[in-house]
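Practice problem 4.
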């Protein structure tokens, strides 16, 4: 029986004896840091944390809209492009680099160098974060005069700037923990950040609102800074009270030393393509925000109609499609150190198994969401946002959504393999095609905003297919078309047909759209899960790896 499972069944005094015997700390027991978490367990932890954060974020937005109103939220949102750009430049590619390099060294037993990589990256991020924070402080008056049409954003921007320095430091700790496959501390820190952000943001927004709407918005920014600071303190405490990786063997690998300059070169060579990729994504969003309304007006739509259609595209369809990204982003984050570990061990079979399982799991999880958006697009948009007209866009984009999710997962695989330049080129090509087709299709009256949706699909499909081809080419492997495509597609068809039939039956009986969708989606998903077990796509072993719930589910359903 694993050590931690034994500990949980012991008395308080026995705990102390076991902890002393196994040479681990209380924090290592509480946060499950002593053993390495499996790929599935790590991903599930991040998924749960991401789900909780999305719920808290949704509550955060509701509370703040009611507190400071649309105008205050508008001021708060205006400063985010510059804030986000500064974060991308300062930290974007470095945490994944830390995760990959630390994972490689720990896998090889080179524990001292893993710590050195973390320290070098931490100092670098501390310095760059401080420099960018000071520069942004000094440039704030100039930016407010030139980049913003509303000078009231000054207080919001100046309040938010310290978060850049805080996030720079905390991102180093997150990358380090991810590299060790210890996903729980970063996940808990993000939940803690969000809770503190919501509570402190509401408090300061209400407190400062009496001085003006701009000070209410600054109160929201203050909540963000306090939340980030709380998360950093939590990560530092976990780090201090855990022993971290120790040298456990006298292998000659442990004597290999890496110079600080070499570490920095490795960090830069890995992080720069990621920074460029994320910058291109930010630039794509900015260009689409300018391009789509302009092309819609060329197609004959009024200024107001163009703004409304773009709102349906960006603020509704894209938001709904991004919800399953909780899963794919968590999986990509977990894959980076897991793939790096397998690559460092030169275990080709393990590499192939992890890549195959990751893509298959993405398909299994992505199909239900895509089906929901395909079958009930107007109903989903109406229930969530009260705008059923956006359903047309959602339905078109749902066709390519599965490729969006595959693209996110395969990006984690490519980063884990160290093929960040390949990841960059594939992403840039997908971005270029999205812009090219948006420029042409959106201006055509026959397509309009649907042209923008089709263009996004083209970009997602291109990036995902190129990523998969690159992985197969680099690893010299071929995936089973039957297991990876035919079986998931059959499950998709079974779930789709059963869900639609059940929906029609319940709708005829109750005439309630919400009730019919809820019941049909639940029963359809249940049939889908049964199919997954019968086809062998999900096994008893897979369920057992779900932390906290695996054994319970197995006993409940007698698997």
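Answer key:
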């Amino acid at each position: 029986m694993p050590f931690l499972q034994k500990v949980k069944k012991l008395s308080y005094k026995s705990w102390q004896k076991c902890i002393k015997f196994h040479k681990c700390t209380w924090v290592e027991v509480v946060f499950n840091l002593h053993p390495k978490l499996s790929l599935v367990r790590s991903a599930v932890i991040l998924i749960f944390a991401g789900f909780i954060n999305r719920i808290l974020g949704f509550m955060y937005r509701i509370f703040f809209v009611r507190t400071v109103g649309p105008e205050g939220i508008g001021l708060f949102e205006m400063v985010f492009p510059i804030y986000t750009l500064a974060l991308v430049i300062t930290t974007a590619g470095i945490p994944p680099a830390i995760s990959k390099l630390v994972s490689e060294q720990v896998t090889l037993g080179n524990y001292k160098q893993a710590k050195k990589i973390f320290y070098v990256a931490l100092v670098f991020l501390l310095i760059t974060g401080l420099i960018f924070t000071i520069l942004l402080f000094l440039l704030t008056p100039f930016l407010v005069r030139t980049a913003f049409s509303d000078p009231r954003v000054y207080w919001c921007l100046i309040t938010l700037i310290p978060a850049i320095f805080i996030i720079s430091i905390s991102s180093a700790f997150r990358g380090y923990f991810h590299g060790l496959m210890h996903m729980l501390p970063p996940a808990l820190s993000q939940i803690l950040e969000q809770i503190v952000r919501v509570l402190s943001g509401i408090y300061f927004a209400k407190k400062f609102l009496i001085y003006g709407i701009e000070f209410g918005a600054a109160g929201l920014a203050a909540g963000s800074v306090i939340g980030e600071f709380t998360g950093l303190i939590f990560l530092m405490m976990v780090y201090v009270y855990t022993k971290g990786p120790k040298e456990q063997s006298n292998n000659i690998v442990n004597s290999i030393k890496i110079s600080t300059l070499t570490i920095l070169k490795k960090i830069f060579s890995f992080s720069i393509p990621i920074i460029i990729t994320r910058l291109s994504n930010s630039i794509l969003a900015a260009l689409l925000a300018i391009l789509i309304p302009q092309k819609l007006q060329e197609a004959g739509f009024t200024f107001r109609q163009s703004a409304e259609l773009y709102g349906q595209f960006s603020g509704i369809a894209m938001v709904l499609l991004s919800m399953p990204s909780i899963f794919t982003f968590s999986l990509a984050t977990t894959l980076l150190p897991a793939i790096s570990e397998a690559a460092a061990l030169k275990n080709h079979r393990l590499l192939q198994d992890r890549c195959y399982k990751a893509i298959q799991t993405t398909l299994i999880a992505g199909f239900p969401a895509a089906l929901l958006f395909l079958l009930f697009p107007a109903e989903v948009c109406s229930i969530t946002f009260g705008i059923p007209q956006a359903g047309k866009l959602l339905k078109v984009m749902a066709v390519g959504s599965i490729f969006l999710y595959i693209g996110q997962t395969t990006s984690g695989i490519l980063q884990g393999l160290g093929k960040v330049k390949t990841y960059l080129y594939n992403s840039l090509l997908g971005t270029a095609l999205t812009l090219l087709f948006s420029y042409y299709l959106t201006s055509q009256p026959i397509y309009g905003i649907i042209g923008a949706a089709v263009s996004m699909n083209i970009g997602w499909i291109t990036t995902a297919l190129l990523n998969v081809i690159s992985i197969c080419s680099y690893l010299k492997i071929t995936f089973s078309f039957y297991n990876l495509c035919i079986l998931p597609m059959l499950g998709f068809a079974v779930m789709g047909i059963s869900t639609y039939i059940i929906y029609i039956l319940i709708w005829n009986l109750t005439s309630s759209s919400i009730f019919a969708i809820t019941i049909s989606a639940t029963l359809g998903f249940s049939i889908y899960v049964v199919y997954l077990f019968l086809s062998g796509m999900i096994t008893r072993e897979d369920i057992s790896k779900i932390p906290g719930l695996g054994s319970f589910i197995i006993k409940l359903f007698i698997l």
